[in-house]
Amino acid sequence: MAEFxxxxxxxxxxxxxxxxxxxxxxxxxxxxxxxxAFASVVGIDMFSRALRTYCDSEMxxxxxxxxxxxxxxxxxFIQTDSQGERQFSYYRENSAARTLIxxxxxxxxxxxxxxxxxxxxxxxxxxxxxxxxxxxxxxxLQRLQRCGxxxxxxxxxxxxxWECPDIARVWIYKMLAGSDLAFAGAEDMAGVLNxxxxxxxxxxxxxxxxxxxELVIKAGKEQxxxxxxxxxxxxxxxxxxxxxxxxxxxxxxxxxxxxALLDGQPxxxxxxxxxxxxxxxxxxxxxxxxxxxxxxxxxxTSDS
Length: 304
Ligand code: ADP
Hints:
This protein has helices at about 20-30, 45-55, 100-105, 105-115, 125, 130-145, 165-180, 185-195, 200-205, 250-260, 265-280, and strands at about 1-5, 10-15, 40, 65, 75-80, 85-90, 120, 150-155, 180-185, 215-220, 225, 230-235. By secondary structure, the protein is of the alpha/beta class. The protein has a 6-stranded mixed sheet with strand order 7-8-9-10-11-12, sandwiched between helices. A 4-stranded mixed sheet has the order 2-1-5-6, with helices on one face.
């Protein structure tokens, strides 16, 4: 999506952002040797064209970035009020991205299966689709898994994008149960379950019965829990003193985690890469930090 952010002088600054997009950009920056494709739909409007150019500049593979002739790129605006609270206004009802399932052909899905090792989907990817298209996406993801592609999923919950909380809960649980790697935010799960104040341990109790092969639970500056069928691990997070903007904290965390995983790093290092990138990202305004601000990942060969 095209993001417009009002700065301290009242001027609007334009950038590009979106949860899966943010993860793709950060993953490619951390893992130059990995072919990272951003699968979505844009239009032919000026923001869509600029988004495509931006993908190229970030070295993302846009083989599955489709073009819709009538729809356009979604937009959102962020303003910070006098109490420092962020206010979002979204203009995405007619966004091209909502047509993803119609725009991807059977050949596209076959190529995915042949060329990709992992596919990463978020609850927002599902929320913006019609119920029929969610079902279509789910079936295609299951086919990919049968061809050996692994599925990673993030619970990113935006209540306003779903018809009702019950539908969101059904889909998020369906995706969690089918994932090879799941990222669950404590705040997201509290929203999904309408259970105020849920912490990482509550989420672990709730999701462990799903037997997800690798479940990563994020809870802001609190411990990160990683749960596999045989072990539970807890990793401390070093809190950032001056948080500027938490936009993309979770998305960049996911990218750091995936980059370390693809690099063959053990669990402890996956969390370490994830947390160090996320802690840098929240010290900058906006979802995507300048390439020059990217942290250097230090390899540690200790076992998880
Ligand atoms: P999500 O957006 O997925 O809900 P969180 O808010 O839980 O994500 O944050 C994701 C990650 O960002 C955390 O696990 C942590 O590594 C990092 N993070 C978030 N807030 C802080 C903070 N105040 N200090 C340090 N790290 C943070």
